[in-house]
Amino acid sequence: MYRYTYQCPLRWADMDAYGHINNAKFLQYIEEARTRMVQELMPADESERRRHAFVVKQSVIDYKTPLEYRDEPVSVDVWVITCRGARLELGYAIRDGVTTYAEAVTKMAAYNLETSTPRRISEAEADFFARYSVV
Question: What domains sit in the chain, N to C, each tagged with a CATH number?
């Protein structure tokens, strides 16, 4: 299995009153990693991007241990759990070399924003996601 890894910088504003990264920021971190992973897959034309979008149906985050603010980035690993039909399910780990701070899963749907309808995942998209598949 090949994972996409994004080095996510921590921002001073991400910290809460307890001195660690606010739990809501973890959702932003996985979104940032996912967006960067699929950049090469997205069409250059805006209308094509709207016809070949993915929307999040569900996000679940399992917080393992607090992440304290620091200058060094954290690694956000992304991998494909399921890719078939109109369904895309991604797994994530927010970690550094020693500690896993959170694990997450997002369930997504391939979606045409122009028509507001689900769509099938294309063969090119399926081939792209196969690179990151756990199977």
Answer: 4-130 (3.10.129.10)
What are 9's two structure tokens?
């910088």
Are 95 and 77 within 8 A, CB to CB? yes
Token output for 6: 């994004």
- Identify the CA nearest to 3 among candidates 76, 108, 72: 76
Predicted confidence at residue 46, as pLDDT, reads: 87
Q: Which of 38, 42, 28, 36 is nearest to 104 (CA)?
A: 28
Q: Which parts of the chain have pLDDT scores under 50? A: none
Kindly give, in sequence order, each residue whose CB lies less than 8 Å from that of residue 93, ignoring residues fewer than 6 positions away.
Answer: 75, 76, 77, 100, 102, 103, 104
